[in-house]
C-alpha cells in the first residue's frame, strides 16, 4: 500500500477522468444522478458507467459517486478522512476536461472488524435506508430494526442496495454578526441597502454551504441591531459540527471583507424536528407529569427551561431529568415533575445543543386543581336504614380509582358504586346500631371520598356523618384483665326496657352465642351480662353489647385483656403416680405446648422447689429432681404439684402427681421412668412420656403398666396418635372460642381427612377411636347450622370408624367405657338436628357404613306430601325404610319450614349395648330420624326392617334411650309396636329417635293372649280392690263405737283403717300413673314423678301399718305388766305408719330426681336400671313381711303357752284370736304377692307366676275386706246388732254366751289341740273362770280391751 497522500490523489484523478486504477485499490462505483435546485446547469445529460464518469453534451449535471475502498490496514482510514476534510472545494478539472469540478468528497460508510463480525456504520449526517435496516441485523440487537426506523450500523455490508444515505433535509435557523454599524434601511426589505446586503450575503452563503451534504438552498431572512446581526436559513441535512465549521470558514472567505463578519458569532437553531410530548393530557395537581423530547441528533447535552420562572430546571426531589440515546438513533430526554402544583404551570423549553447547533422545542403545561362536590355534613339514625353519601368531580374524566375512607370512634362500613360517565361515586352504608355508641349527642365519623388519577393526583372531600343511637347503654367501667382459665363478666345496662333483641358481638363482627350471656328486663330498663367461665386467648379483644328495637340499635363496647396462662387440662404431668425407694430420687415434669414467660415451681407437701426449663420444639417442659431424703418420713404418700405463674401474677396448679415412698423390701420392678413396684402393682403413665411417644407431636391417652416378676409390662394401651390428639386439643379449644361456628367447617374437613388417612392406625388403637368419638361429641355441641358439606365431613368420619375392620377395636374400647357407641349416636343426632338447606328437593349422602337422606318441607302446597326414605346396604345385606304420614307433617309446619333427616347405620348395632337385662341383642339396621323442631305431642313414625331372624327369637321394636343405665344408654321399647310379615318387620312408634329391632327369646308378644289376660285381670282386680277397700272403710265407720271399747281393739282397728286407706289411695295413684304412661304425655313428666312418689309412699304406709299392728300385738302379749297410754300408742303408731314411709320416700326422690333417674323411662315406678331406687320399697316391704311372720309365730306360741299368772278373760282371748287371725292372713297374702312378683323378674319365668302375681296384687283390697274386717267376730256382731230385729238380737246374745263359756283357745278345742301337738305340749288349762286380783284384773282388762 502506498502513502495516504498518493492514494487520495489517485482517487481524485480516477473520479475526474474515469481512468484506470493505477494503485493497488479495489474500486467499484455506482453512479446516482442528483439534480441541483435553482443552480442546475442546462444542457447536460447524465452518463453512468462503472468506474468512470464521462461528460456528454453541452449541459452540466451534478452527480453523486459511491466508491468502495478496501484497506489492508484499518489505520489508513483516519488519515484519509483528515486529508479529505482539509481539501478546498471545488476542485477544478485538468486541462483536458476543465468543465468537471469536484464539489465535495465525504466518507459515508465505514466497515470495521469487530470480534468475529464486520460492523458497517454510517458517518455523521448519514444513515442506512429503512429497507436495509428491516432486512439485516443491526449492531445494537440481533433482530431487525423496529418498523419505521432507520439505523446507523449493520452487521456486515448488505449485498445489494445503496450505502449510507444523507438524512432528511432540515432548516437551520442561523445568525452571524457583522461588525458594522446598523442602518435603519436594513429593516426595510425593499430598500437598496437591504437588497445589496441580501445579495452579497446569499452569494457567499451559497458558496460556503454548498459543501454540506444534502445542501439545497440558503436565504437571508432579515437584519437586527447588535452591530448587524444577519438572520438566515439553510436547508440541508443535519451536518456534522466539523463540516459546519468548514462551511462557515468558506463563507467568511467568500464574503467581501468590508462586511467585517465575526467568524466566532455563527449560531444555528434547527427547525422544529424535536418531538415534544406531555403525559397526561389533562394534568391535575398532584400528578406525576412526564415531558419527553426526542431528536434524531445524537447528543446528551439537553437542558430544560421553565419560561415563567426564567430558570433552567435541575434535578431535585420534585424534578428529574433523564437523557439517553435510544438504539443509537434517537436522543431522548425526559423531565418528570412529581406532585405537580399550580406554580409549575407554564411554558417549558427543551433545548438540545450540539456544538453551534441548538435544537429547541416549547410546550405549555396547564395544571388543574381537583374539585369535588359533596354535602359536608349529614346526620344518620342507627335504625338499619340505608344512607347514601355522594361525591362528584367537577371535571368529567376517567378516574383510576375512587376510594372511601372513614375516621372516628366507630366503624360503619358501606359499599361504593362509581358512575364513570358522570365521574360520581356513591357510598351506601347501613348503620344497624351495632357500630353506634350510645349517647344523646351522637358519634361523629368523617368519611372521605378520594379521587385518584392514573398518574397519582389525589383529591378528597370530607363528609362528617353523625350517628345517633336510640337507647343509652352503660357498660362495666372497671378494666377487665384476667388470665386464661379464669372467668370474667361484662354487665351492660340500658336505660329503656323496650327492646326486640339483645346480643353481643366481637370487634370482628362475630355474634356470640346466647349461652354466654343472660338478659333481664326491668320496669325502667334492662341489663345483659356476658359471662365467660373459662377464658382463652381468643376472648382477648373488644366486645359490643347491642340492644335492638325494630331497626334502631344501641351499642356499648368493652375491652378485655387475656393474659397467657395454661389451663389445668393442658398441663401434661409425669409421672401420674410413682413409687421410689426411701433413699432414691425421681424427676417430675410438667409440660405445656407454648413458650411463654412463666415462673414455675414444684410443691411437695409444704415445700417449694424451683423448676428447670427445657424447650423441645414447640413443647416446653419444666422439671425437678426430687430426692427422697428431703422428706423425713418413710414410708409416706405425698402429692406433688407444679405451679405456673404468669406476668399478671395469676397462677394455675397442675393435676396431682402421686409420690409413694416405700422401704423396698418387696420391690421387684425397677425402671428409671416408671419407678419401683411390688408384684401386681399397677401404674398409669401419660403416653406422651412413655416409650410410645411420637415425633409427630404430643400423643395423648394413658398407658397402664403392671409389675410382673421383675419387669413392668404393658397391661393396657389407650394411647392416642399425635394427629388425632392434636385434633382433640383443637376441638377442646374450639368449643371455648367465641368464633367456634366460623371455625367448625374447616375443622370438620380436617377431621375427615385425618381420620381417613389414619384409618389403619385407628383400627388398632382404642384410644384414638375413643378420641374421635369425643371430638364428634364436642363439635356437635357447637350451636350453629350445619350445611351439606359439613355433614358430609361428619358422616365421612363416622363411616371410617364404623368400618367392619374397626369393630373389634370397639369391643376393646367398651371394656373401659361402655358409652362411646351411645355417645357417637347422640352426636350424629345432634348434627342431624342442626342440618339445614334451602334446597327443598332433599339432601342425600351415601357411604358404605352410613347413609343419610333428608327433605326440607316448606309451608305451602308441598306440605300435603308425606315423608318416605329407603335405605339399602348390599355389603351388609340389610335394608329398611322410614315413613311419616302427611297428617303428622302438617302438625309440625304450622309456623315455619322443617327439615327431616334420617341416618341409617348397618354396623352400629353390633357395638351398641344389649338391652337392660343384657340378654336381648340388636342385629338389624339402626335408623335415626330427627326433626329440627321441638315436638310437644305424640308423633307417629313407621319403619320397616328386614326380618333378620337367622338367630331365632321374637323381634321387638326398640329405640335407643340415652338416659338409661345411668345415662350410658340402652334399648327401650316404650311407645313402639311390632308386626311381622314374612321377610319384613313393621314398627310403629309415637316418638322420634334411633330405632332398631331387638331380638328377645322370651319377650311376650304385645298382642298375645297372655298379655290380654293379664290386662283384664289387672283392671278387674283393681276395680274390685278399690270397691272392697271403700266398703271396708264404710264398715269400720259403722261399727267403730262397738268394736273399740278397749285400747287393744281401738289400736287394732286404727291399723286396719289406715291399711285400707293407704292401699286405696295407692291403687288410685297406680291407675293414674298407668294412664299417664299409656298415653305417653311428654308434658306430664312431673305428673309421673308425683304419681311414683305417692305410690311409693302409700304402699310403704300399708306395710308399716302392718308392722305397727304386729308390734302392738307383740307388745300387749309379751309386756303384760307394762301399760302405755292411748295417746302414746297412737303417736308411736302414726309415726311408724306414716313417718317412716315419708322419710324413705322423700330421701329417695331427693337423691335421684335431680339426676332424673328417679322413675323408669317406660313406667311411672321406681327406677331400677340406673339407681336401684326400687330397693327403697322392696327392702322395707320384705323386712316387714319377715318381722310380721316372726311376730305371728311368737304370738301364737305365747297364747298357747301362757305364763304363770296370765289369766286372760274370754273377751281378751277373743281379741287376741282376732289379731292373730288378721296378721296370719294378711301377712302371708302380702308376702306371697311380692314373692310371686319377684319370680316374674327372672328371665324364663312361667306364665303361672305372672297370673298368680296379677291376681293376688289386683285383689288385695278384697282380701283385706274379707280377712281383716268381715272375719272379725265383733264386727259381725256389731253389724248384726246394727241391722237385726229383736229376735236376731236374743239369738245372738245366746250365741255369745255360749261362745264365752267355751273359749276358742281352750285346750279342749280342736285348734288348741292342733297347736299343742305342733309345739309338743299336753295338758289342760282352765281359763274360763280365772281368779284375779284387783291389780291383775285391772291390767289385763285394760290391755285386752285395747285389742278389742
From TrEMBL:
Residue intervals of the Ig-like domain: 274-366, 471-561
Subcellular location: Cell membrane
Domain of life: Eukaryota
Annotated GAIN-B domain residues: 841-1005
Residue stretches making up the SEA domain: 166-273
Domain G-protein coupled receptors family 2 profile positions: 1014-1272
Keyword terms of this UniProt record: Cell membrane, Disulfide bond, Glycoprotein, Membrane, Receptor, Signal, Transmembrane, Transmembrane helix
Pfam family, one: GPS
Membrane topology: Multi-pass membrane protein
Spans through the membrane: 1016-1039, 1051-1073, 1093-1119, 1131-1153, 1173-1201, 1222-1242, 1248-1271
Signal peptide: 1-24
SUPFAM superfamilies noted in UniProt: Family A G protein-coupled receptor-like (SSF81321), Immunoglobulin (SSF48726), SEA domain (SSF82671)
Low complexity composition-biased segments: 1328-1342
Gene Ontology annotations for the cellular component aspect, listed alphabetically: cytoplasmic vesicle; plasma membrane
Region entry Disordered, spans: 1328-1348
Coiled-coil annotated spans: none
Any one Gene Ontology molecular-function term assigned to this protein's record: G protein-coupled receptor activity
GO biological process, one term: adenylate cyclase-activating G protein-coupled receptor signaling pathway
Family of this protein: Belongs to the G-protein coupled receptor 2 family. Adhesion G-protein coupled receptor (ADGR) subfamily.
The protein, known as: Adhesion G protein-coupled receptor F5
Organism for this UniProt entry: Rhinolophus ferrumequinum
Gene: ADGRF5
Amino acid at each position: 500500500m502506498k502513502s495516504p497522500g498518493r492514494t487520495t490523489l489517485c482517487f481524485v484523478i480516477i473520479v475526474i477522468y474515469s481512468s484506470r486504477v493505477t494503485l493497488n485499490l479495489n474500486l467499484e462505483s455506482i453512479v446516482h444522478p442528483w439534480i441541483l435546485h435553482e443552480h442546475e446547469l442546462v444542457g447536460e445529460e447524465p452518463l453512468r458507467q462503472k468506474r468512470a464518469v464521462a461528460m456528454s453534451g453541452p449541459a452540466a449535471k451534478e452527480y453523486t459517486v459511491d466508491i468502495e475502498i478496501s484497506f489492508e490496514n484499518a489505520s489508513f482510514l483516519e488519515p484519509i478522512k483528515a486529508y479529505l476534510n482539509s481539501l478546498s472545494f471545488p476542485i477544478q478539472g485538468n486541462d483536458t476536461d476543465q468543465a468537471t469540478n469536484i464539489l465535495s468528497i465525504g466518507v459515508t460508510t465505514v466497515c470495521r472488524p469487530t470480534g468475529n463480525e464486520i460492523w458497517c456504520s454510517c458517518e455523521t449526517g448519514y444513515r442506512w435506508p429503512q429497507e436495509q435496516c428491516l432486512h439485516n441485523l443491526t449492531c445494537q440487537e440481533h433482530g431487525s430494526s423496529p418498523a419505521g426506523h432507520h439505523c446507523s450500523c449493520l452487521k456486515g455490508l448488505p449485498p445489494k442496495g445503496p450505502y449510507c444515505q444523507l438524512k432528511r433535509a432540515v432548516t437551520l435557523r442561523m445568525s452571524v454578526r457583522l461588525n458594522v454599524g446598523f442602518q435603519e434601511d436594513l429593516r426595510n426589505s425593499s430598500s437598496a441597502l437591504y437588497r445589496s446586503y441580501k445579495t452579497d450575503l446569499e452569494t457567499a452563503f451559497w458558496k460556503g454551504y454548498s459543501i454540506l451534504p444534502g445542501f439545497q438552498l440558503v436565504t437571508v431572512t432579515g437584519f437586527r441591531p447588535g452591530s448587524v446581526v444577519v438572520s438566515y436559513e439553510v436547508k440541508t441535512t443535519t451536518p456534522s459540527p466539523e463540516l459546519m465549521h468548514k462551511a462557515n470558514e468558506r463563507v467568511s472567505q467568500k464574503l467581501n471583507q468590508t462586511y467585517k463578519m465575526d467568524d466566532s458569532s455563527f449560531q444555528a437553531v434547527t427547525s422544529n424536528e424535536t418531538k415534544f410530548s406531555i403525559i397526561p393530557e389533562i394534568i391535575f395537581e398532584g400528578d406525576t407529569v412526564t415531558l419527553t423530547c426526542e431528536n434524531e441528533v445524537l447528543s446528551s447535552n439537553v437542558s430544560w427551561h421553565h419560561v415563567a420562572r426564567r430558570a433552567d430546571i435541575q434535578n431535585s426531589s420534585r424534578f428529574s431529568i433523564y437523557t439517553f440515546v435510544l438504539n443509537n438513533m434517537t436522543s431522548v430526554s425526559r423531565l418528570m415533575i412529581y406532585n405537580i402544583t399550580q406554580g409549575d404551570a407554564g411554558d417549558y423549553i427543551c433545548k438540545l445543543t450540539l456544538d453551534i447547533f441548538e435544537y429547541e422545542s416549547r410546550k405549555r403545561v396547564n395544571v388543574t386543581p381537583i374539585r369535588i362536590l359533596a354535602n359536608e355534613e349529614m346526620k344518620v339514625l342507627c335504625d338499619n336504614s340505608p344512607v347514601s353519601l355522594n361525591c362528584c368531580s367537577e371535571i368529567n374524566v376517567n378516574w383510576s380509582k375512587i376510594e372511601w375512607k372513614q375516621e372516628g370512634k366507630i366503624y360503619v362500613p358501606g359499599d361504593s358504586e362509581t358512575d364513570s360517565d358522570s365521574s360520581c361515586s356513591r357510598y351506601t352504608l347501613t348503620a344497624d346500631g351495632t357500630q353506634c355508641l350510645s349517647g344523646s349527642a351522637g358519634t361523629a365519623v368523617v368519611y372521605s371520598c378520594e379521587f385518584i388519577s392514573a398518574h397519582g393526583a389525589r383529591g378528597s372531600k370530607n363528609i362528617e356523618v353523625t350517628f345517633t343511637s336510640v337507647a343509652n347503654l352503660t357498660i362495666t367501667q372497671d378494666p377487665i384483665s384476667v388470665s386464661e382459665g379464669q372467668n370474667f363478666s361484662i354487665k351492660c345496662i340500658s336505660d329503656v326496657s323496650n327492646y326486640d333483641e339483645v346480643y353481643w358481638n366481637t370487634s370482628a363482627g362475630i355474634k356470640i352465642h346466647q349461652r354466654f350471656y343472660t338478659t333481664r328486663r326491668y320496669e325502667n330498663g334492662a341489663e345483659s351480662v356476658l359471662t365467660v367461665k373459662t377464658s382463652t386467648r381468643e376472648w382477648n379483644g373488644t366486645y359490643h353489647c347491642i340492644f335492638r328495637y325494630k331497626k334502631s340499635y344501641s351499642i356499648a363496647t368493652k375491652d378485655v385483656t387475656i393474659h397467657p396462662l395454661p389451663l389445668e387440662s393442658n398441663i401434661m404431668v409425669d409421672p401420674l403416680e410413682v413409687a421410689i425407694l426411701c433413699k432414691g430420687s425421681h424427676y417430675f415434669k410438667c409440660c405445656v405446648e407454648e413458650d411463654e414467660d412463666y415462673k414455675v415451681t414444684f410443691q411437695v407437701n409444704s415445700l417449694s422447689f424451683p423448676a428447670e426449663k427445657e424447650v423441645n420444639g414447640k413443647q416446653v417442659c419444666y422439671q425437678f429432681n426430687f430426692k427422697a431424703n428431703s422428706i423425713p418420713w418413710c414410708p409416706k404418700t405425698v402429692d406433688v404439684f407444679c405451679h405456673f405463674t404468669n406476668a399478671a401474677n395469676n397462677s394455675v396448679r397442675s393435676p396431682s402427681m402421686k409420690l409413694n415412698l416405700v422401704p423396698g423390701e418387696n420391690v421387684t420392678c425397677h425402671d428409671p421412668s416408671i419407678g419401683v413396684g411390688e408384684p401386681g402393682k399397677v401404674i398409669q403413665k401419660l403416653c406422651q412420656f412413655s416409650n410410645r411417644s411420637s415425633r409427630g407431636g404430643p400423643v395423648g391417652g394413658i398407658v397402664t403398666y403392671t409389675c410382673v416378676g421383675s419387669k413392668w409390662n404393658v397391661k393396657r394401651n389407650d394411647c392416642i396418635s399425635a394427629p388425632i390428639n392434636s385434633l382433640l386439643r383443637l376441638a377442646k379449644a374450639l368449643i371455648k372460642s367465641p368464633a367456634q361456628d366460623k371455625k367448625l367447617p374447616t375443622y370438620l374437613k380436617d377431621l375427615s381427612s385425618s381420620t381417613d388417612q389414619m384409618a389403619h392406625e385407628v383400627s388398632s388403637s382404642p384410644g384414638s377411636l375413643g378420641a374421635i368419638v369425643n371430638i364428634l361429641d364436642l363439635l356437635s355441641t357447637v350451636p350453629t347450622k350445619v350445611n351439606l358439606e359439613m355433614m358430609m365431613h361428619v358422616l365421612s368420619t363416622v363411616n371410617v370408624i364404623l368400618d367392619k375392620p374397626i369393630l373389634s377395636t370397639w369391643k376393646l374400647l367398651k371394656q373401659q367405657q361402655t358409652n362411646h357407641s351411645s355417645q357417637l349416636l347422640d352426636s350424629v343426632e345432634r348434627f342431624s338436628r342442626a342440618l339445614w338447606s334451602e334446597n327443598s328437593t332433599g339432601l342425600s349422602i351415601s357411604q358404605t357404613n352410613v347413609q343419610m337422606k333428608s327433605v326440607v318441607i316448606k309451608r305451602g302446597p308441598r306440605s300435603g306430601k308425606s315423608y318416605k326414605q329407603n335405605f339399602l346396604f348390599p355389603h351388609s345385606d340389610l335394608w329398611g325404610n322410614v315413613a311419616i304420614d302427611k297428617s303428622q307433617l302438617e302438625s309440625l309446619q304450622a309456623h315455619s319450614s322443617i327439615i327431616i333427616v334420617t341416618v341409617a347405620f348397618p354396623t352400629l348395632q353390633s357395638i351398641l349395648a344389649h338391652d337392660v337385662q343384657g340378654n336381648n341383642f340388636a342385629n338389624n339396621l339402626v335408623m335415626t330420624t330427627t326433626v329440627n323442631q321441638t315436638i310437644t305431642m305424640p308423633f307417629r313414625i313407621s319403619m320397616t326392617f328386614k326380618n333378620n331372624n337367622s338367630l331365632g327369637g321374637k323381634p321387638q321394636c326398640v329405640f335407643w334411650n340415652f338416659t338409661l343405665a345411668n345415662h350410658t344408654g340402652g334399648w327401650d321399647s316404650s311407645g313402639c309396636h311390632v308386626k311381622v310379615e314374612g321377610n319384613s318387620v313393621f314398627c310403629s312408634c309415637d316418638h322420634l329417635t334411633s330405632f332398631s329391632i331387638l331380638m328377645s327369646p322370651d319377650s311376650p308378644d304385645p298382642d298375645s293372649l297372655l298379655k290380654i289376660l293379664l290386662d283384664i285381670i289387672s283392671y278387674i282386680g283393681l276395680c274390685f280392690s278399690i270397691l272392697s277397700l271403700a266398703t271396708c272403710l264404710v264398715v269400720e265407720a259403722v261399727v267403730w263405737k262397738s268394736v273399740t271399747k278397749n285400747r287393744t281393739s281401738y289400736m287394732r282397728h286404727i291399723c286396719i283403717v289406715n291399711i285400707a286407706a293407704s292401699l286405696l289411695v295407692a291403687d288410685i295413684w297406680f291407675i293414674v300413673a298407668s294412664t299417664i304412661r299409656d298415653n305417653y304425655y311428654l308434658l306430664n313428666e312431673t305428673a309421673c314423678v308425683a304419681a311414683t312418689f305417692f305410690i311409693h309412699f302409700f304402699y310403704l304406709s300399708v306395710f308399716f301399718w302392718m308392722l305397727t299392728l304386729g308390734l302392738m300385738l307383740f307388745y300387749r302379749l309379751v309386756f303384760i305388766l307394762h301399760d302405755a297410754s292411748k295417746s302414746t300408742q297412737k303417736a308411736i303408731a302414726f309415726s311408724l305408719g306414716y313417718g317412716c314411709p315419708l322419710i324413705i320416700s322423700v330421701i329417695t326422690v331427693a337423691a335421684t330426681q335431680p339426676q332424673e333417674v328417679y322413675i323408669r323411662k317406660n313406667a311411672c315406678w321406681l327406677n331400677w336400671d340406673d339407681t336401684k331406687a326400687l330397693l327403697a320399697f322392696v327392702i322395707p316391704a320384705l323386712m316387714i313381711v319377715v318381722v310380721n311372720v316372726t311376730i305371728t309365730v311368737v304370738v301364737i306360741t305365747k297364747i298357747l303357752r301362757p305364763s304363770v299368772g296370765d289369766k286372760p278373760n274370754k273377751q281378751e282371748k277373743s281379741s287376741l284370736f282376732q289379731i292373730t287371725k288378721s296378721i296370719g292372713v294378711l301377712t302371708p297374702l302380702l308376702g306371697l304377692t311380692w314373692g310371686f312378683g319377684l319370680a316374674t323378674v327372672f328371665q324364663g319365668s312361667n306364665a303361672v307366676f305372672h297370673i298368680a302375681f296379677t291376681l293376688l296384687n289386683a285383689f288385695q283390697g278384697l282380701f283385706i275386706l274379707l280377712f281383716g274386717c268381715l272375719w272379725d267376730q265383733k264386727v259381725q256382731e256389731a253389724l248384726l246388732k246394727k241391722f237385726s230385729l229383736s229376735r236376731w238380737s236374743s239369738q245372738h246374745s245366746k250365741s255369745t254366751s255360749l261362745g264365752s263359756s267355751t273359749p276358742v283357745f281352750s285346750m279342749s278345742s280342736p285348734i288348741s289341740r292342733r297347736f299343742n301337738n305342733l309345739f309338743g305340749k299336753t295338758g289342760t288349762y282352765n281359763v274360763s273362770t280365772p281368779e284375779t286380783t284387783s291389780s291383775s284384773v285391772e291390767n289385763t282388762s285394760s290391755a285386752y280391751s285395747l285389742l278389742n
